[in-house]
């Protein structure tokens, strides 16, 4: 069934790592297979943040050689960044297989990401000025502890707690998805898309890459495609209401905004709290109450509704 | 356990008419014995006896057990503070009781109740009062989708807006929404009355078998087999009395509300059992 959540602070940064962890953990019953976060930190001038992995978690148990492979893959990533004119400002090893780089790079982002993903076993999870995409197996507390997310300061975030239905239990099928290669755009989704393969084939013909067989990835790629065509984010989201079949409620975040869309059947839940300087959305109100215990007014967005909030 | 032959007094009491043959699980009872009309284990409560507790640090099971314990001690008025939108609170209460939640409920709040008078000071999530049999539930703020799904009796009132599929498959009772309502409200309803004082979303009353929908605002679209009906004097009288009971008013007056009923063109209203249909076809 999956649970999704989003929050945005208007006019200031806060501990969004702890807030999102709390929201997702309170919806663990909606799906304990994996948890994922797209958190938007305060950007540094002239720097990008890249999150990537050099293996799946399950690979670690599969072979004696995997650790050597991971070292070689990382060294190759470093070499290719340098060959493209990039400079690694800071490198942080979040887990054995997941890394966080702060970079200086001002070239073509698609070519950059494609070149890194050309290395076997390497997947770029996100690149952005503020976006950092973290996802792994287990519940929200476990992932947040593993990646030291509690205390992460930023302006907005989306998150996902997954009950795998359409694809495997692995990091590649976990949400959120980055709208590759658009910096700072990420998506989480609750539902099923029934015209996934038709849309995927069409998008692949236009040069977009899919890393998983998870139908939710289609939304991120679809939005990326519409952005390539010059659509504004809210227009691209409205197009999904007509063109994607199935049942869905999804959240999308960009460098400075948070959006939601709900299908015309309103088959998947979403509860919205809209304050003056803080907005929170979640599949269940109990998630919002986990960070907002006092009495507040909440609503359900209606069928076919698209909303976007800015910082 | 099974009686192969019905007791004469239960037949005389018109509790059933058929004579059963073979094995059956049916338990026959006497209408003359008052105990037979009480749900086993229902305590006697006193409305003047009031209890209040804070549910902030309690989980769903503990909250529901506490309500049950208090009823067992004879408390007829119970106030639950800080429910914090937890799921499945106040479910399965088959008793007279005045129950107030000083806050919001999550999913499946006060489902399968039979008798209590409930007030929710906040909002409710999906499927509030599902399969409610009797009593009243008044929600002061908004409601999520599937409000009153499968309700069979009683009054369910939401003063704010409600989500999609309000009154889905309702089989009796009354559901009233003070504000706007989402798509597919009254979907497959079979009996009862759905009163929507604000605007109604698209496909209102889709595939409804029977029952009546009244709408005070605009209707985005009617669903399959939902057709306009004519407001009668009886409708006006009933709506006036029912809305007054909860301090509500139709924006343009009850006489000007839209009435929607089943066209009864979609379903085959014959009396054949499935096995008989096979023979006919």
Chain pair sharing the greatest interface: A-B, 18 and 30 residues
Radius of gyration of chain A: 18 Å
Helix coverage percent of chain B: 10-25%
Pairing-aware structural class of the strands and helices of chain A? alpha+beta
> How many E strands of chain B?
11
Total DSSP helices of chain A: 8
The CATH class assignment of the largest domain in chain A is: Alpha Beta
The CATH H-level superfamily of the largest domain in chain B is Glutamate synthase, alpha subunit, C-terminal domain
Largest sheet of chain A: 7 strands, antiparallel
- Low-pLDDT stretches of chain A: none
Strand % of chain B is 15-25%
**Count of individual beta strands of chain A:** 16
Please, what is the oligomeric state?
heterodimer
Shape of chain A: globular
Number of separate domains of chain B: 2
Question: Biggest sheet of chain B, strands in spatial order?
Answer: 1-2-3-4-5-6-7-8-9-11-10
The helix count of chain B comes to: 4
How do the helices and strands follow one another from N- to C-terminus of chain B?
Answer: HEHEEEEEEEEEHEH
Question: Architecture of the largest domain in chain B, according to CATH?
Answer: 3 Solenoid
CA-CA gap between termini of chain A: 30 Å
Shape of chain B: globular
């Amino acid at each position: 069934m999956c649970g999704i959540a989003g929050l945005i602070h208007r006019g200031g940064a806060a501990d969004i790592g702890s807030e999102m962890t709390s929201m997702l953990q309170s919806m663990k019953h909606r799906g304990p297979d994996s948890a994922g976060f797209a958190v938007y930190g305060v950007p540094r001038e002239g720097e990008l943040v890249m999150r990537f992995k050099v293996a799946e978690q399950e690979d670690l148990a599969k072979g004696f050689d995997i650790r050597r492979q991971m070292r070689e893959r990382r060294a190759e990533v470093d070499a290719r960044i340098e060959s493209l004119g990039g400079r690694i400002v800071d490198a942080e090893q979040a887990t054995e297989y997941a890394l966080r780089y702060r970079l200086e790079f001002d070239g073509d982002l698609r070519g950059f990401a494609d070149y890194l993903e050309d290395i076997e076993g390497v997947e770029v999870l996100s690149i952005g000025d503020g976006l950092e995409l973290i996802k792994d197996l287990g519940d929200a507390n476990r992932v947040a502890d593993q990646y030291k997310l509690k205390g992460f300061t930023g302006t907005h975030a989306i998150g996902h707690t997954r009950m795998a239905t359409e694809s495997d239990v692995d990091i590649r099928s976990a949400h959120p998805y980055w709208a590759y290669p658009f910096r700072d755009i990420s998506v989480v989704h609750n539902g099923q898309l029934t015209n996934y393969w038709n849309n995927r084939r069409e998008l692949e013909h236009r040069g977009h890459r899919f890393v998983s067989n998870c139908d939710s990835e289609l939304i991120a790629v679809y939005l990326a495609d519409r952005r390539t065509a010059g659509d504004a984010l809210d227009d691209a989201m409205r197009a999904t209401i007509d063109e994607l079949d199935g049942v869905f409620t999804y959240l999308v975040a960009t460098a400075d905004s948070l959006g939601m869309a709900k299908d015309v059947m309103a088959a998947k839940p979403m509860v919205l709290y809209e304050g003056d300087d803080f907005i929170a959305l979640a599949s269940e109100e109990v998630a919002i109450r986990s960070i907002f215990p006092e009495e507040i007014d909440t609503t359900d967005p209606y069928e076919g509704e698209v909303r976007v909030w800015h910082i | 356990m099974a009686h192969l032959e019905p007791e004469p007094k239960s037949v005389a009491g018109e509790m059933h008419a058929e004579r059963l043959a073979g094995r059956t699980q049916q338990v026959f009872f006497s209408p003359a014995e008052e105990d037979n009309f009480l749900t086993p284990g229902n305590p006697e409560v006193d409305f003047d006896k009031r209890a209040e507790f804070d549910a902030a640090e309690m989980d769903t099971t503990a909250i529901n057990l506490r309500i049950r314990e208090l009823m067992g001690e004879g408390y007829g008025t119970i106030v639950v503070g800080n429910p914090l939108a937890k799921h499945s609170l106040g479910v399965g209460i088959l008793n007279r009781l005045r129950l107030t939640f000083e806050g919001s409920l999550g999913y499946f709040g006060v489902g399968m109740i039979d008798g209590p008078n409930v007030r929710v000071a906040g909002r409710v999530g999906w499927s509030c009062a599902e399969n409610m049999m009797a009593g009243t539930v008044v929600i002061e703020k908004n409601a999520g989708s599937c409000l009153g799904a499968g309700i069979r009796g009683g009054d369910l009132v939401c003063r704010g807006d409600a989500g999609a599929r309000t009154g889905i498959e309702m089989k009796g009772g009354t559901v009233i929404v003070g504000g706007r309502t989402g798509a597919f409200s009254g979907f497959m309803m079979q009996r009862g009355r759905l009163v929507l004082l604000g605007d109604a979303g698209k496909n209102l009353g889709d595939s409804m078998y029977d029952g009546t929908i009244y709408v005070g605002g605009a209707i985005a679209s009617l669903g399959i087999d939902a057709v306009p009906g004519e407001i009668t004097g009886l409708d006006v009288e009933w709506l006036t009395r029912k809305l007054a009971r909860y301090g509500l008013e139709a924006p343009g007056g009850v006489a000007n509300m839209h009435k929607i009923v089943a066209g009864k063109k979609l379903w085959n209203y014959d009396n054949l059992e499935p096995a008989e249909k096979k023979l006919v076809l």
